[in-house]
Amino acid sequence: MNCPEIVPIALPTPFRVGPVNVFLVKSTPLTLIDAGVNTGEAFEALRAAFKREALALSDLEVVLLTHTHIDHVGLLGRLRACADFTVYAHPDATHHRLNLEDNHDEAHRFALEIMREFGTPPDVIEKASAEQQTFRDYAADAAVDRGADEGQTVGPYTVCHVPGHSARDILFVNPRQRAAFTGDHVLATMTPNPLLRRPSPGQPRTRSLVQYRNSLRKTHALDLDVCYPGHGDPIRDHRAVIDSLFKRMDSRSARILALLGRQPLSVYEVARGLFPRADVTQMYLQLSAAVGHLELLEEEGRVAPQYRDGVLCFRTV
């Protein structure tokens, strides 16, 4: 049996992360993995890539989403105007239109609240908030047709849920080819940042980095020859990349312990200690990394949280 040809397509984004990968799988049905960001430039780049393969966007039959961040779902609405296809994603995504505009106000309120809780100064909050508001420009009108449950088979792919970077991360694993489309779950050229996520009503906030580390262990055990990531080149040794991610996490945790010493610090103070030269407009990402590692250390019994004048701080144990 011949293996279908996989065509990587790097689409431009307006974000600091740089280009995002989508993958055209020349099979029956014709399949696209992820859908880029909602810009005219990305749409034309995708159209041109199909044309190079002697295909039209109208030939598309299936879209598989590794997760629902805006640089991976953005073109779904535009593609719907060109083709009739079925979109598969995490089951939770089937309950919502994937429109950033719909949830932006709630997400923005949560970001403001969590930055205040972490001790972020008002002027920094204002700058970081203005940066987040720019994401409104890339709101994408799209919908998921079918949920992909853990262990479900979608064509040749087995679905593997790996929450962490986002709540809805999925691997689409082809066991015959020993290959997987991994989205932003495993990246060789950068460290995926498990972002702070707004909790469901009445539920505690998910410890994203703790969850991510557990998911990485699950992926480490998979028997794979190649992973196709959302950014960067294909990964030929996923276990080595994951081991490197674990080492980077451990190194960052050690730096945090050194920062804390015997004095409690707010999450914001830890974030500035970790990223002293980073642009404060990216503070939400920095706080996500800082609190994630603090929560890892808390799970290990090495630090403990405490509130100081309403601000979440951590101290060594």
Description:
The protein is of the alpha/beta class and about 325 residues long. It folds into 2 domains: about 5-100 and about 140-235, Ribonuclease Z/Hydroxyacylglutathione hydrolase-like (Metallo-beta-lactamase, Chain A, 4-Layer Sandwich); about 100-135 and about 245-315, Arc Repressor Mutant, subunit A. It has helices spanning about 40-50, 70-75, 75-80, 100-115, 120-135, 210-220, 240-260, 265-275, 285-300; strands at about 5-10, 20-25, 30-35, 60-65, 85-90, 145, 155, 155-160, 170-175, 180-185, 225-230, 265, 305-310, 310-315.
Largest sheet: 6 strands, mixed
Shape: globular
Number of β-strand runs: 14
Approximate helicity band = 25-40%
Structural class comes to alpha/beta
Can you say what the CATH homologous superfamily of the largest domain is?
Ribonuclease Z/Hydroxyacylglutathione hydrolase-like
CATH architectural designation of the largest domain: 4-Layer Sandwich
CATH topology term of the largest domain? Metallo-beta-lactamase, Chain A
Span between termini: 58 Å
* SSE topology string: EEEHEHHEHHEEEEEHEHEHHEE
Question: Which whole number gives the mean pLDDT?
Answer: 93
Strand content: 15-25%
CATH class of the largest domain: Alpha Beta
Report strand order across the widest sheet: 1-2-3-4-5-6
Tally of contiguous helical segments? 9
Could you list the spans in which at least 5 consecutive residues all have pLDDT below 50?
none
- Number of domain units: 2
The radius of gyration over CA amounts to 20 Å
